[in-house]
Design a protein that fits this description.
Radius of gyration: 24 Å
Helix content: 10-25%
Shape: globular
Number of strands: 21
Structural class: alpha+beta
Order of helices and strands: HEEEEEHEEEEHEEEEEHEHEHEEHEHEE
CATH topology of the largest domain: Rossmann fold
Strand content: 25-35%
Number of helices: 8
Number of domains: 3
CATH superfamily of the largest domain: Vaccinia Virus protein VP39
Largest sheet: 7 strands, mixed
Strand order of the largest sheet: 17-16-15-18-19-21-20
CATH architecture of the largest domain: 3-Layer(aba) Sandwich
Length: 414
């Protein structure tokens, strides 16, 4: 077998051989960042995206994928570093898939996240609107209140590898001892949990992989997803199962919920509808500003916790209803012209059916909260066609050191 035959064996199945050979190395200048956190440069006009490369840098990149319109590459060497490049805090940064920006000075992270929202608005939603500077997290490290390490199916007679998916992989894991995005208390509990799992495995081997939980709350740290825990936003205390969704950067939660509430209340709307209310975060945080507030949720369990949270906090002008996806606003008696609606859908965004119902209901204002600006922009284009105009765009950096952010867009009925 020739050396070329051996090399060809390493080429992934389905690799496109143009415009670059597999693992061909090239030098490029990085012009910008994508919303996935990759540095984007061009070689003879062809777009190349490289993880961990920063704008303004000249780098050597190694091609590993050619797509129809661009190529992706690994960073081999930084030939001319950006002045914003700093030393990362985590020893497995670039290996673990959790962070993309630990090497990026924090103020510059915020500027680029703001810029990316504006570019997405322009290119995806075809909306030319001002974007306010991203509001920083009070904590840049140690801010996460929830950690979900995983382990794959253990090999026979081998130890369990507990950690997170490797950068760019869907099946390989990186062992994690401590994560700088969570508190010392959570890291200590993670170490104990790993020892407990290894002990269980030595006595009765796991037959498949699993996802673990470490969650900090106002009363301590738990690893039981069914445990009922408490979190606070402003003056409101929320109870919910530890394994359920709840915003996991408590350091910015008060500022975040207050902004959403005030955005909904502007122009004097008397009534509030929280259309993806969960356990009541925005509905209960905003209720004092409105005559009446209604939270709608398709999960019966979440509705039960939202009702209990209203009772526990003495909030009497908020009620919660179990929504039917086919007629989500059928139980709302408020006139749309005097109502503000808050929506905070999952990462996939809202369905066209939901947006059509929202437009038909005709609220005076819509406050759209999203952890995925790309799907948010898609939905904004639909709302704009439904006679809603963007009046304010405010990113919040709930996830420092990562490509992720929350974006709050306020719209007004034209």
């Amino acid at each position: 077998m020739t050396n070329q035959d051996t090399k060809d064996k390493r080429i992934p199945k389905g690799f496109r051989h143009k415009p670059f050979a597999y693992h061909e190395e090239i030098e490029i200048e990085i012009e910008t960042l994508t919303n996935m956190g990759q540095g984007l440069g061009r070689h003879e006009g062809w777009v190349i995206m490289t993880r961990f490369a920063l704008p303004g840098e000249r780098i050597r990149a190694r091609i590993y994928r050619n797509d129809k319109n661009f190529s992706e590459a690994d960073l081999v060497e930084v030939l001319s570093p950006s002045p914003d490049r700093i030393s990362p805090s985590c020893p497995v940064f670039t290996q673990c898939g959790g962070c993309q920006y630990q090497h990026f000075e924090y103020e510059s992270q915020l500027k680029w996240k703001t810029r990316q929202v504006k570019e997405l608005l322009k290119h995806m939603a075809r909306i030319d609107a001002d974007v306010l500077p991203a509001i920083p997290s009070p904590k840049q490290y140690g801010y996460r209140s929830k950690l979900t390490p995983h382990f794959p199916k253990p090999r026979k007679d081998g130890p369990i590898q507990i950690g997170f998916l490797r950068q760019g992989s869907r099946s390989r894991y990186v062992e994690i001892d401590r994560c700088p995005l969570v508190s010392d208390s959570m890291n200590d509990r993670l170490a104990a949990l790993k020892s407990e799992v290894q002990q269980i495995h030595s006595n009765k081997p796991y037959k498949k992989g699993a996802t673990l939980l470490v969650r900090e709350h106002i009363e301590g740290v738990t690893t039981d997803p069914k445990a009922i825990i408490k979190e606070q936003a402003g003056d409101i205390v929320f109870s919910f199962p530890a394994g359920e969704f709840f915003q996991n950067n408590p350091s910015i939660l008060k500022q975040f919920t207050e902004y959403v509430s005030q955005s909904a209340r502007k122009d004097g709307s008397r009534y509030l509808v929280d259309a993806y209310c969960g356990s009541g975060l925005f509905c209960l945080s905003s209720a004092s500003l409105f005559d009446q507030a209604v939270g709608i949720e398709v999960s019966e369990r979440s509705v039960q916790y939202a009702v209990a949270n209203a009772d526990a906090n003495g909030i009497q002008n908020a009620r919660f209803v179990l929504g039917d996806a086919a007629s989500i606003f059928s139980q709302i008696e408020f006139p749309g012209s005097e109502t503000a609606v808050i929506i905070d859908p999952p990462r996939k965004g809202s369905s066209v059916d939901f947006l059509d119902q929202l437009i038909a209901f005709g609220p005076a204002r819509i406050v759209y909260v999203s952890c995925n600006p790309a799907t948010q922009m898609r939905d904004l284009a639909i709302l704009e066609k439904g006679q809603y105009a963007v009046v304010e765009v405010q990113p919040f950096d709930l996830f420092p050191q990562t490509k992720h952010l929350e974006c709050v867009v306020t719209l007004k009925r034209a």
